[in-house]
Structures are given as structure tokens and as C-alpha cells.
Amino acid sequence: MDIQFKEVGYAYQGFKKQYHALKNINLEIEKEGEFIAIVGQTGSGKSTLVQHLNALMKPTSGTINILGTVLPSKKKIKVNHLRQKVGLVFQFPEYQLFEENILKDVEFGPSNFKETKDHKTEYAKKSLKLVGIDESLYEESPFRISGGQMRRVAIAGILAMNPNILVLDEPTRGLDPQGKDDIMDLFNEIHVQEHKTIIMITHDMDIVAKYAKRVVVLNQGEIVFDGKKDDLFQHEDFHTFHLDYPTHMRMMNHLHETLGIKKKFVKNQDELLSYLKEVFK
Ligand SMILES: Nc1ncnc2c1ncn2[C@@H]1O[C@H](COP(=O)(O)OP(=O)(O)OP(=O)(O)O)[C@@H](O)[C@H]1O
Ligand SMILES: [Mg+2]
């Protein structure tokens, strides 16, 4: 197993008391072939959890093994290399752009690691191409492009480090529908072509239904579900997870309530349409 959480807890140290943001987390993740959506209500601990994946945060109880490095460690150990292996794209990553031009900004990540340093320009150009940023923009300031383009540049900066695992904290938030589709197709392409594991926080159940293979549901700092998305959406305790159903399932429920159509589990809009054609034949 490439990443393994064992009874991980994390408590934020407040002024007077602690806040237990993660409790008894047991989780195993492979570095290849997974596409995991992390979902749950606001404040359920999603961002706290993913920041443990590249050692940005360390458990206050339990242990986490990241590609052979066990944390927390009594000895002082280097964790910097994990930042290259597990690429973390924060929520609104565009706020972290800082260089004078786009190419330099994307080169910054790979320039920090021995694995990628010598090829930083090559990797940066390849990543910019992948996210759809044209060569004519390389010399442009990252602050003089649109918000959607800034997001792409920031994501290219992480891709240029050539991580094994890509972790994304709400990458589609604030993007228009086309921007959402484009960026999701990009992650899917990386996942399908390079078999990289993608771990993505999202509130968007349509994205979960379309792209994820596995879903981890957090509720008040605890994992309440970890399994296949089809099992999640058919779970009898679904209402206790405080999640929405994807659009096609909400439509099915609506058709059931308004027209009395018999409910059937459908995985996407196409399945819903075929079912309706069947019903109205
Ligand atoms: N720096 C901090 N100090 C104290 N408490 C914090 C801190 N950061 C987060 N918390 C608390 O920890 C809990 C989990 O926060 P986290 O950001 O992981 O939630 P989340 O699931 O990512 O939420 P969202 O969907 O809103 O992004 C929240 O109750 C939050 O108030
Ligand atoms: Mg968050």
C-alpha cells in the first residue's frame, strides 16, 4: 500500500482548547490507478485530510505512511521529497502565483527537486501545453490573464513536478460550466493515460458520478463511507451523509414524485433517458 493512514487524528490547537478536525481515520490509497472523490459537508475535515497526504500537516495522533515515510517521526526526517511525489493543488491555487512571467512560475516547482530540476523548462512547457496555455502567453505576467487561465497555470505548476499522485482541493470551484468540463477532462486524461492516482475534494455530485471510481465521505472529522460511487448513491443511509444526489438521480426522484414513474438506479443521464424511453414506449 502506497499511502496508509492508521487511526489518524488531527487537532487544531486553539487559544484555550483543541478542535478535533480528524478522528480515527483509517485509509489506504494506491499510487496508481485510483480516482477518489473526497466529499462531505463544509467543515467536515476534507482540506485537513488532504494536507496530510504530502506531509504539509502531521497527525497529532496515529500514524501515516506516505510512500515509505512514516509520520509523525521522533527523529527529524526530510519530507520535502514527498511534495514532489504527491502534488497538492490548493483551493483557489491562482492566489499562489508569484513569478514575473507564466513560464517562470511553472518552472518554480520542478526547480526545487533533484528529480525534476534539470528538466524544469521541458516539464513546464509540457504541462502548460497539457492545461491548454498557449506558447504566446509564456512571457506574460500570471496576473494579467483571466481567472480560469490563472487556475490552469497554477495546476501546470504542480503537474510540472511530475507527481505520482495528484491531490486537488475543489479544482472546479468558481469556474464556468465549460471551464469545469475542460479541467475535469484534463484530470481524467492524466488519470487514464498516465494511470496517476487522482484524489479530489468536491461538493459537485455530478463530477463524482461522472469521474470518480471511489468515494470517501467525511462527516465531522470521521470517515462514514469509503467505497464505490454506485454503492454510495444506493446507500440506505445516504441522507445521513448530508450530500446531494447527482442531477440525473434527482430528476429520477422528481419524475417518481410528480408522474409516479417507478424509481430505478441510473448511473448517468444516458441511462435515465433510455429508461424513460422504455417507460413511455
Ligand atoms: N487553522 C485552523 N484552526 C482551527 N480550526 C481550524 C483551522 N482550519 C480548519 N479548522 C476547523 O477544522 C474543521 C475542518 O476544516 P476543513 O477546512 O478541513 O474542512 P473542509 O471539509 O475542507 O470544509 P470546506 O468544505 O468548507 O472547505 C472545521 O471545523 C474548521 O473550522
Ligand atoms: Mg476545504
TrEMBL record:
InterPro entries: AAA+_ATPase, ABC_transporter-like_ATP-bd, ABC_transporter-like_CS, ABC_transpr_CbiO/EcfA_su, ECF_ABC_transporter_ATP-bd, EcfA2, P-loop_NTPase. It is an enzyme of class 7 (translocase). Its EC number is 7.-.-.-. GO terms for molecular function: ATP binding; ATP hydrolysis activity; ATPase-coupled transmembrane transporter activity. Residues 3-245 form the ABC transporter domain. The keyword ATP-binding applies. SUPFAM superfamilies: P-loop containing nucleoside triphosphate hydrolases (SSF52540). One of its GO terms (cellular component) is ATP-binding cassette (ABC) transporter complex. Pfam families: ABC_tran. Keywords: ATP-binding, Cell membrane, Membrane, Nucleotide-binding, Translocase, Transport. It comes from the Bacteria. It is found in: Cell membrane. The keyword Membrane applies. Forms a stable energy-coupling factor (ECF) transporter complex composed of 2 membrane-embedded substrate-binding proteins (S component), 2 ATP-binding proteins (A component) and 2 transmembrane proteins (T component). Belongs to the ABC transporter superfamily. Energy-coupling factor EcfA family. ATP-binding (A) component of a common energy-coupling factor (ECF) ABC-transporter complex. This is Energy-coupling factor transporter ATP-binding protein EcfA2. It comes from Acholeplasma oculi. The gene is cbiO1.
